[in-house]
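hey so u asked for the seq, here:
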Amino acid sequence: MAKKRILSGMRPTGPLHLGNLHGALANWKSMQDDYECFFFIADWHALTTDYDATMPIQGYILDVFLDWLSVGLSPDKCTLFIQSHIKEHAELFLLLSMITPLPWLERNPTYKEQIAQLKNRDLSNFGFLGYPVLQAADIIMYKANGVPVGIDQAPHVELTREIARRFNHFYGDIFPVPETILTETSKILGLDRRKMSKSYNNAIFLSDAADEIRRKVSEMITDPQRARRTDPGDPAVCNVFSFHQLYSNQETIHRVDRQCREAKIGCVECKQMMAENLVGVLEPIRERRSYYEAHPDTVRAIIEDGDQKAQAVARKTMEEVRAAVRI
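ran it, structure tokens below
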């Protein structure tokens, strides 16, 4: 029986961090054996907010691609490609924009949240309002059966489902209506206990060197109520302990939990222990990245091959779409 097809993408806004690893990449990697996977770098989507600062985007594309390969996404199992290299995305976006009611876009919860959060940027442009339509084009172009997302991204997939149904209503059953594949994600905060983000300058990147990881971990906020080494701590409110739960073995986790509560271990020692475990976990990722950085021709060939595979599917889909729309 043929594998079901899934699709997902990432905006190229810089090198990827631990939040990206646990929020998406680990799930993508686990799915690549069981699904026909299409993963793309959404560089056109990056323009919705960074339209006035496009210079870094090309470098970010390479950063993201290297991170994908480094964590173990395999070009033998996945189609890895760049959105803007497949011009059919723009054509389908145009056609879908003709049938998408404006209120569907205005009620998008992420649209409202971003307008409120990014007050320092002028987001009063159609590209930002209409990006869910481009997102729908990205997904249904490949007739994806499902889209793996966290719970916060589920409304985006639901809007894609509505757009696919509306297209099929007008022009015939061209597109399958993709399912939302909710994926479990490990909650991981930044160094300052806020959401891990490049814009907050609180991220540990997958490409960070070992010494840089140790430096960043040393700056992590611990239990705010533990002012002195002799004060008992509460691991439940300590961000360092949450990292132990992800990167340390069970014996270490239990020991740190007990000794922290009994004030038998200090925050400095606790951080150092966790940092070494994190360095060890990320070492294979850094080694793979070093390999691909030393072989740029291999990376270019992987991108070209993925683009060609995606192009073939997109070209066939658009032939069907044009025939259905009679244009």
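DSSP finds 14 helices and five strands in the chain. The radius of gyration is 22 Å.
lmk if thats what u needed
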